[in-house]
Design a protein that fits this description.
Number of strands: 8
Number of domains: 2
Helix content: 55-70%
Strand order of the largest sheet: 4-3-7-8
CATH class of the largest domain: Mainly Alpha
CATH architecture of the largest domain: Up-down Bundle
Distance between the termini: 50 Å
Length: about 600
């Protein structure tokens, strides 16, 4: 007797036999984006390898090397002239200033070049489909711009275009810090701090709106100073953004440590989050002070040190934020952020939560069938639908009798009968038996919480719960026999209908109809390597023989078989996916939603 998948997305209704089926609780497999990205990375590496030069370097790496060396040489070349110019101005520069200028001339190009190198070479971690990665790369490229190097400033800062040069420095450092803020907004959304993220977006627009007009006015009319009021308003709103982001990041990291601090991966990720929270304040503060001092030639000796440190911290923050560097599990930062969000109380909890399906009005994609054995991916789907509204999810997850577990709904095509007669064959008495093996639970150690869930499920579905522990074999067989007799009675009283009920199907059907009316594209996910297999015509769902034949090589769970048959019967178009495509599907939906926004 095969295990029958419940509309619970996490459990199966155990049968008397312990035979393995595609729907039995199996050790969880993680077909995550990391595995897919690794395969894509290998393919990309093979393509890039064809473009490698004789010495093993790619053209991009050679260009980066030449660009970085050119910046270093140009900066070092102008250092003596800058020192001589200050001597001419009777400022008596000392040997220390020569050292400081030389340090900045070399350090800044090397640090930013190293940041660009991480994005060029770390193919296994970088993904063009992640907006966070794309914007992080843009930030690194912006930091690596040579427009504010000493070589460029030497020729423009004291000449005819001095005012434009100073304003260019202001704009450059403002854009770099604004990009950091923008990337942190992505992070806050993943952590579940949606309101904070949206507030920061609004404040960022206000800050730039206040600062842009006076900056353009200064560059056009060559004035020496900016109007005070717009600058103060811009700085004030920007400070509010930094404080809000820093507090949110540190708060999420603290809660994650308190609830999951025993997990080393979570602990390392939380520490990285703390570091990002600190850098969110320190970096912009250093930028503002150092560049203002440098372009005004006031306190240059200290300012140039701080400029190099500031750029280094921004590169570090960007690489950490994007996952180019960091602990294991940080290579997919959005996934790591969501996990921390769950622990901090803003994501989908690891425990069972009723989910009645959700059709987001602004979404264009809708998942209408999902294999319940992939619980991690299911949690990610629910979190995405609830937090970001990137796509819709018609599937339901019932946890108790109040939500619909064990309840039935009438089939409008057959008055007086529920959907069970149409979507299931006549079920044997074993389906009314819930066997719990405390020593051999396939989900790992059976905690008191898991046992409580199984008991609650059995109560809601009218099943007989029988627990196998340390009792002698003969005692267990007697206990099991009595439980089976009780299950036969319950099955007969319920007219052989599914103990988990069929209300889930009615709720699902209503969500599908809602998605179709909204014009959303429907998607069905199959077991790994089984896309398109196991489908049955609607009229054969109630045939035990046909079901058994289909399940010999199926890619669908028991409930999914009915879902797909309903779609086929009504001519509802849908797209098919292997479960290994799921993470990329979420990225696609998130990207499409982001582009629409």
């Amino acid at each position: 007797m095969e295990g029958v998948e419940l509309p619970l997305r996490r459990h199966t209704c155990p049968a008397a036999s312990q035979e393995t089926s595609p729907e039995s609780p199996l050790p969880r497999r993680r077909a995550t984006l990391a595995a897919v990205a690794q395969q894509l990375g290998e393919m990309e590496d093979g393509a890039v390898g064809a473009e490698k030069l004789v010495h093993g370097w790619s053209r991009a790496q050679v260009v980066l090397l030449v660009y970085t060396l050119a910046r270093v040489v140009a900066n070092v070349y102008v250092v003596p002239a800058q020192v001589e110019q200050r001597r001419f101005q009777r400022r008596s520069p000392g040997a220390d200033e020569m050292i400081v200028r030389t340090f900045d001339a070399v350090a800044r190009p090397l640090i930013t070049g190293l940041g660009v190198y991480c994005f060029l070479c770390n193919k296994s971690r970088f993904s063009e489909k992640l907006r966070l990665h794309v914007w992080s790369r843009r930030t690194i490229f912006c930091l690596a711009c040579c427009a504010t190097d000493q070589s460029a400033m030497h020729y423009f800062l004291y000449g005819r275009y001095a005012d434009i040069a100073r304003m260019s420095c202001y704009i450059w450092q403002t854009v770099c810090n604004a990009l950091q803020v923008y990337m942190t907004i992505f992070k806050l959304k993943a952590l579940g701090w949606g309101l904070t993220a949206r507030s920061c977006q609004v404040l960022l627009v206000i800050s730039f709106s206040c600062l842009a007009p006076p900056c353009f006015h200064t560059m056009i009319f060559h004035t020496r100073s900016l109007p005070v009021l717009p600058v103060v308003a811009s700085v004030f709103t920007f400070v509010l953004i930094l404080l809000a982001q820093s507090l949110a990041l540190c708060s999420a990291a603290t809660r994650a440590l308190l609830r999951g601090g025993s997990d080393e991966a979570i602990r390392c990720s939380a520490y990285c989050l703390f570091l990002n929270g600190v850098l969110a304040i320190v970096g912009p503060t250093l930028s503002l002070w150092s560049w203002m001092a440098m372009v005004h030639d006031d306190g240059f000796f200290l300012a140039v040190w701080v400029v190099s440190i500031d750029v280094g911290l921004q590169v570090l923050a960007t690489l950490l934020l994007s996952g180019m560097i960091g602990p294991k599990g940080w290579d997919r930062p959005m996934e790591a952020f969501r996990r921390l969000g769950h622990l901090s109380g803003f994501g989908l909890a690891a425990s069972r939560i009723n989910f009645p399906g959700k059709i987001n009005a602004r979404a264009t994609q809708c998942i209408v069938s999902f294999p319940g054995m992939y619980s991690t991916q299911w949690d990610n789907a629910v979190a995405n639908v609830q937090q970001f509204e990137d796509c819709s999810l018609a599937c339901v997850f019932f946890t108790d009798k109040a939500s619909g577990l064990g309840q039935h709904s009438d089939n409008p095509d057959t008055p007086g009968q529920c959907w069970c007669r149409m979507i299931y064959p006549e079920l044997p008495a074993e389906t009314y038996l819930s066997v719990v093996d405390l020593k051999g639970d396939s989900d790992g150690v059976l905690t008191k919480e898991k046992l409580a869930f199984k008991k609650a499920d059995a109560d809601a579905m009218g099943q007989v719960l029988v627990i196998k522990d340390d009792q002698p074999q003969m005692e267990w067989e007697v206990e099991f026999s009595l439980a089976l007799n009780d299950a036969e009675v319950r099955c007969k009283e319920n007219r052989g209908r599914a103990p988990w009920g069929c209300q889930w199907f009615e709720k699902w059907r209503m969500k599908v109809d809602e998605a179709v009316r909204a014009g959303q594209t429907l998607h069905v996910f199959y077991f790994a390597g089984k896309k398109g297999r196991g489908k049955l015509p609607w009229e054969k769902l109630c045939s035990a023989k046909d079901r058994a034949t289909a399940r010999e090589d199926t890619g669908l769970g028991a409930s999914q078989t009915a879902e797909v048959a309903y779609l086929e019967k009504n001519g509802i178009k849908y797209e098919e996916h292997d479960i290994s495509e799921f993470d990329d599907f979420l990225l696609m939906a998130h990207g499409a939603r982001g582009e629409d926004a």
